[in-house]
Amino acid sequence: MAEKLDEMDRRILRALQIESSRSQRALAEDVGLSQNALWRRLKALETSGVIKGYTARLDREAAGASLVVFSMVKTRRHSADWLRSFRAHLESIPEVVSLYRISGDFDYMLKIVTHDIAGFDRVYQRVTEKLELEAVTSYFAMEAMIEDRPIPL
Amino acid sequence: MAEKLDEMDRRILRALQIESSRSQRALAEDVGLSQNALWRRLKALETSGVIKGYTARLDREAAGASLVVFSMVKTRRHSADWLRSFRAHLESIPEVVSLYRISGDFDYMLKIVTHDIAGFDRVYQRVTEKLELEAVTSYFAMEAMIEDRPIPL
DNA sequence: CCTGAAATCTTACGTAA
DNA sequence: TTACGTAAGATTTCAGG
Lengths: 153, 153
Fold this sequence. Notes:
The structure is a homodimer. Chain A is α+β, with helices and mostly antiparallel strands. Chain A folds into two domains: about 45 residues, Winged helix-like DNA-binding domain superfamily/Winged helix DNA-binding domain (Arc Repressor Mutant, subunit A, Orthogonal Bundle); about 80 residues, Alpha-Beta Plaits, CATH 3.30.70.920. Chain A is about 40% helix and about 30% strand. Chain A is built from five helices and five strands; from the N terminus they run H-H-H-E-E-H-E-E-H-E. In chain A, strands 3-4-2-5 form a four-stranded antiparallel sheet. In chain A, a hairpin with a 5-residue loop joins strand 3 and strand 4. The longest helix of chain A is centred in the N-terminal third of the chain and has 13 residues. Chain A is elongated and about 55 Å long. The structure holds a DNA duplex.
C-alpha cells in the first residue's frame, strides 16, 4: 500500500491532474505505455489511495461563487474536546472549503467561498457565534491570479 | 454563454464535484433525469465553460507533497509592468499553486505546496530573488483539517 | 426509447529487465 | 520476480437518432 511512486506513476498523475477525461489509449500513448499497462497502474493508484477520485473542475465565478475570503483565526481555548467541536462545527459549513492549523501568530486559517459579501457575512456569523475566538483577521480576495493548480510532482 | 444555472444544473455540478467518474446512467438517476437529458445538460455546461474539465483528486501526502505554506506578501512596487512580471514569475513556479491579490495589510497571498522544508526554501528563494518585496510572512500548515472541498452551489 | 460505435475491463500468454 | 506488450473477448458507456 505504501510503495513509492516511480517516474511513470508521476507522469500518469501529472497527466490526470491536467485532464482526466481522456481515453486510456490517448493517455497511455502520452506517457509511453500500452493501454493495458496503463490500466494496471491506474487501478493500483486508485486502490492504494493515491488517486482519491475524479472530479469536475468548475469555473468558480461562472458557478456563482464569486467571493473568496481567507480568515486567520486565533483561538482562546485549546483542549482536545474544544478542538473536536471546532472541527465539527466548521465541517458543517460547506462554504468553509479549507481549514489548516498553522504556525505563527494565528492558530487556524480558513478559506471561505461564497456568492457575495452577504453570504460571507452569514458564514462569518455562523463561524463565530458558537466558538470563543480571540481574534479573526479576514483578507478578501480582489483577484484570483492563480487558482488551485495541480499538485507539483 | 451566460445563461443562469437552474437547480438541476446545480444538482449535476454538485454530484460531479463529488465524483465525476460515475456513468451517466447512475448520475442521471441520482439527479432525476434520463441519461439522454443529462448528456445534453453536460454538453451545455462543458461548452459554456462552467465545467472547465475533469481532474484526478490526489492524496497530497501520498503523492509526496507533504508541506503546505501560506505566504502573505507586501510589495514595494505597483506599476502595471511590474505586476505583469510578478505574475509571470510566479506562474513559472509550479509549487505556487494559488495566488490571490487581497485586501488588508498585505497585497498578495500565495499558497505553496512542496515536498519538504528544503523544497519550500528553494521556492522561497526563487520567489524573492527576482522581485522587490517589502515584506513576506509565511504560515506553515501543521495540519490540513479540511482541504479543497467542493465549491458550494 | 433504441442503437451503432467506442471505451473499459478482464484474461491469457509471451517477453524483457 | 516484476513489469510490459499483444491480443481477443465480454461488458459498459457514450453520443446521438
